[in-house]
Task: inverse folding
């Protein structure tokens, strides 16, 4: 299975955290809040499309609002394949992180 | 920024952004961006928000390009695959298309090479822009030609001395002399006497010797590398001695061989000083303004314009030359400057060093090449259009799967470009094969690596794009318009509109071919006419031997008697030149009842036997005769043109005074006209016959002309050769036949007719090829119809007629357009000639019949096949 990059990990975890309102701007806001750094739309959009292409996440269309010029949101959620990938990622990370305090 | 403006720019940016992102993301991303923009404009103001939006657009560019190139590559491979499959599937069509295009492009590239070569003349001189030639224009009574490529000797030094704008000047004098070294003797055709400044003005690099001083002293010579090899072999040629006309010349320089694209070609430059030093020649050539024989070139200073200098020339001539020319030639002289770079293509004066090219022929060739290319393009368009029906399914399917019209246009144009490139490849092979033939036809030495020229490669690139776009345009723009539903249902048919276009194009093709055909026929006809016109003399069976030694000239009568012992030699004469060769021009004074009149006429110096040997006719009076002892000293013959032009009512009563050849102002010969000779063509038939005077004068005779019996020519020649070796052992024996020399006057017309014939054959071939393709297609389309007709009882003949009729009508229509065009074009060309062949109507009819027959034969092959086919086969088709 394809291993996840840090960015992909962050995005997928954000989607999990945001539950049913995980669209592009919400994810960007969430990442900004967590990391405290500037996050641009493109830097999130591109990994998102990549993840969607490899079927780790899926999307459907949400409601349209006036502020969006009447256009619908694209809401992402994690697929089962995505969950597996995250778990695998966590397992490897945990092993690697286990004894870091001993230094 | 107003709210409205703001809104507009936002809309514009959004549109831009949408084009950069993949289709499926367009809606939601635009929404996301709008939301973000809204938030930023609330927090930081609208301007900042707008700036943010712009940066977002830029951020999308890299991913856009990545995506774009990925998909377009995929599509290009698909297009290529389809194109190749189509070539394979329709082999005949592809063959017709590609061959036609390849031939057409080969013609165009050959012509481009030809034009490039013609335009490159004299460009290799570093100072070419500042070099001008001084040429003559005489205004003298007597119908003597006016414009000459040379001028008299004092011009160069005097111009340089009088005008600060003349930086340097050089004179060239051409002489055909024998050059000797030890036992090596050659007549040098490319020997020039030149001033020392020749190497300053022209760019002829020396590999040995100093260009500034090489020709400064008398009796020095500079030779080319190949000439050095010829005389001295591998030895160093420097400081060796060559003998020319009993004078020794020291080799003081060796120059690189001259490039061929020069309006004069020199192998040896001997110093003009040698000439000038000789007291006799000094007087004869260098002190007179009336002996015009020197090609004079000026190098002008950068800051002066040639127009200004030219404006000062009349005053200059008035100051130095006018008086002398008035006295000697009885007229006036004006000179003008000719830019060096325009000499080759634009100068057609009397006595050019070499025959020059002609801008008209460059233009004619270009038009022919364009014709052929157009005919080939039309083939492509026609067959592609015809076949577009077959491809309608593909178009429909592509549209259903989501291809835009734009993409289809791209595909079809790309396909025709691909075809064109392939044809170019074949064209290059054809050129390699055809280049030797083309060179011998045009008398050029073009090589394949002339192609590696930036401008030429550029024009070939343009050519490909042009041909590709023209040929691909119809299917690209029209086929791509099909509605997918119609296309797939196969209800699209060759609508009448399209077939009109195709018919129009066939007519166009055949019009061009017929024009070319008629042009060729007229050119050939005119040439034939010129060759066989009544010349006024018998050009056959006259051997011309150049006179190299004075003893031959002095003993001409004895030699003639000796030669006549051979029964095959009928008569002989010594003369300045035979018709088609050199004719002098000199001033005479006519004494009539009205008084004395000085005028300049064409003049032939000869002996008593000229008229007899040439087979001319005396129309009034009598011929020169040895029995009349006074004929040598006081008899003149004139031609009919002179009688007409000078309005002599009683020509035989006309007194003539002649100043002689050495320009002292005394009278050399005084006498009267004893006979009028029937007009004979002593120059090219392009010009009308000018007035001429003939008299006995052995000093200026250069050739011995002998009329021989037509049988056993080779033994007669051997006899003459043996005799000549006894008479003049110092020089190698040379001879020529008068008819050959005379025919050489029409060499440029002959070249033209050769090229015309070949190109018009190619044009007709390509047009026929296209017609063959169309017939093939038509028969394929109508297979079922033919089957049904046959089942119902149609005869083979009626089906054949049905299929052929259509094309026959088109070809007949083409004639209607072609005839007047060809007539007008060729009438214009014929105006170059003083004597022209009438354009016979049968020639036009012949062209029509020929085109008709070619079309019919081409079509009938297919038509017969279809008509003879078993209806069972054709009905089972599909």
Result:
């Amino acid at each position: 299975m394809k291993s996840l990059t840090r960015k992909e990990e962050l995005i997928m975890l954000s989607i999990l955290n945001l539950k049913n309102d995980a669209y592009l701007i919400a994810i960007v806001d969430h990442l900004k809040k967590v990391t405290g750094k500037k996050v641009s739309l493109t830097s999130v959009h591109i990994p998102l499309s990549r993840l969607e292409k490899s079927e780790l996440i899926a999307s459907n269309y949400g409601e349209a609002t006036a502020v969006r010029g009447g256009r619908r949101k694209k809401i992402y959620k994690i697929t089962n394949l995505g969950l597996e990938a995250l778990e695998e990622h966590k397992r490897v990370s945990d092993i690697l992180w286990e004894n870091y305090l001993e230094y | 920024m107003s709210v409205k403006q703001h809104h507009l720019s936002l809309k514009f940016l959004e549109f831009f952004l949408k084009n950069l992102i993949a289709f499926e993301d367009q809606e939601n991303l635009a929404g996301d961006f709008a939301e973000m923009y809204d938030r930023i404009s609330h927090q930081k103001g609208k301007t900042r928000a707008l700036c943010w939006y712009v940066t977002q657009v830029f951020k999308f560019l890299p991913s856009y390009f990545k995506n774009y190139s990925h998909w377009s590559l995929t599509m290009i491979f698909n297009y290529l695959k389809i194109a190749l499959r189509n070539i394979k599937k329709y082999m005949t069509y592809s063959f017709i298309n590609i061959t036609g295009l390849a031939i057409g492009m080969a013609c165009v590239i050959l012509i481009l090479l030809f034009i490039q070569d013609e335009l490159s003349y004299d460009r290799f001189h570093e100072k070419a822009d500042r070099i001008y030639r001084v040429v003559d224009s005489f205004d003298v009574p007597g119908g003597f030609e006016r414009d000459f490529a040379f001028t008299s000797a004092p011009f160069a030094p005097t111009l340089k001395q009088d005008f600060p704008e003349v930086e340097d000047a050089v004179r060239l004098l051409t002489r055909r002399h024998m050059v000797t070294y030890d036992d090596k003797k050659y007549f040098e055709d490319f020997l020039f006497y030149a001033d020392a400044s020749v190497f300053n003005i022209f760019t002829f690099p020396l590999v040995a010797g100093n260009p500034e001083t090489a020709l400064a002293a008398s009796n020095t010579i500079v030779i080319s590398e190949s000439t050095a090899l010829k005389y001295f072999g591998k030895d160093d040629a420097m400081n060796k001695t060559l003998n020319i006309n009993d004078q020794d010349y020291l080799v003081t320089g060796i120059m690189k061989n001259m490039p061929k694209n020069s309006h004069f070609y020199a192998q040896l430059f001997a110093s003009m000083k040698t000439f000038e030093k000789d007291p006799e020649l000094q007087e004869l050539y260098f002190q007179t303004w009336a002996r015009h024989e020197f090609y004079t070139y000026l190098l002008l200073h950068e800051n002066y314009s040639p127009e200004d200098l030219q404006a000062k020339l009349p005053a200059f001539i008035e100051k130095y030359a006018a008086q002398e020319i008035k006295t000697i030639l009885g007229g006036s002289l004006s000179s003008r400057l000719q830019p060096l770079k325009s000499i080759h293509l634009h100068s057609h004066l009397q006595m050019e060093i070499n025959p020059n090219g002609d801008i008209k022929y460059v233009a004619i060739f270009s038009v022919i090449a364009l014709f052929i290319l157009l005919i080939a393009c039309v083939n492509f368009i026609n067959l592609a259009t015809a076949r577009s029906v077959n491809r309608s399914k593909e178009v429909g399917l592509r549209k259903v799967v989501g291809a835009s019209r734009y993409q289809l246009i791209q595909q079809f144009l790309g396909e025709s470009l691909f075809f064109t490139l392939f044809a170019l490849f074949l064209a290059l092979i054809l050129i390699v094969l055809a280049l030797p033939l083309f060179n011998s036809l045009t008398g050029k030495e073009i090589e394949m690596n002339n192609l590696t020229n930036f401008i030429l490669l550029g024009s070939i690139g343009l050519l490909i794009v042009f041909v590709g776009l023209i040929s691909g345009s119809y299917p690209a723009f029209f086929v791509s318009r099909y509605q997918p539903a119609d296309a797939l249902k196969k209800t699209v048919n060759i609508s009448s509109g399209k077939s009109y276009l195709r018919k129009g194009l066939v007519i166009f093709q055949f019009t061009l071919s017929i024009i070319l055909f008629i042009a060729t026929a007229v050119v050939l006809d005119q040439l034939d006419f010129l060759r066989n016109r009544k010349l006024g003399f018998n050009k056959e069976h006259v051997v011309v031997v150049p006179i190299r030694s004075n003893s031959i000239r002095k003993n001409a009568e004895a030699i003639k008697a000796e030669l006549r012992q051979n029964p095959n030699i009928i008569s002989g004469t010594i003369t300045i030149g035979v018709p088609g060769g050199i004719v002098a021009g000199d001033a005479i004074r006519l004494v009539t009842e009205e008084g004395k009149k000085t005028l300049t006429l064409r003049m032939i110096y000869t002996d008593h036997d000229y008229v007899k040997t040439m087979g001319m006719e005396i129309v009034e009076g009598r011929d020169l005769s040895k029995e009349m002892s006074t004929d040598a000293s006081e008899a003149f013959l004139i031609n009919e043109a002179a009688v007409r032009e000078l309005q002599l009512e009683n020509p035989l009563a006309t007194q003539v005074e002649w100043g002689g050849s050495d320009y002292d102002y005394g009278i050399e010969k005084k006498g009267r006209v004893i006979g009028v000779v029937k007009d004979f063509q002593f120059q090219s038939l392009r010009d009308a016959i000018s007035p001429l005077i003939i008299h006995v004068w052995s000093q200026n005779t250069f050739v011995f002309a002998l009329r021989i019996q037509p049988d056993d020519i080779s033994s007669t020649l051997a006899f003459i050769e043996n005799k000549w070796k006894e008479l003049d052992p110092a020089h190698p024996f040379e001879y020529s036949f008068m008819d050959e020399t005379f025919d050489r006057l029409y060499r440029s017309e002959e070249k033209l007719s050769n090229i015309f014939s070949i190109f018009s054959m190619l044009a007709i071939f390509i047009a026929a090829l296209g017609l063959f393709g169309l017939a093939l297609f038509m028969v394929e389309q109508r297979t079922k119809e033919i089957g049904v007709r046959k089942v119902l009882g149609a005869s083979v003949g009626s089906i054949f007629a049905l299929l052929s009729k259509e094309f026959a009508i088109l070809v007949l229509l083409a004639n209607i357009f072609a005839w007047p065009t060809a007539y007008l074009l060729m009438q214009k060309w014929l105006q170059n000639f003083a004597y022209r062949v009438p354009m016979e109507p049968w020639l036009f009819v012949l062209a029509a019949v020929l085109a008709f027959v070619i079309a019919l034969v081409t079509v009938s092959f297919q038509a017969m096949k279809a008509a003879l086919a078993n209806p069972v086969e054709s009905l089972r088709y599909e």
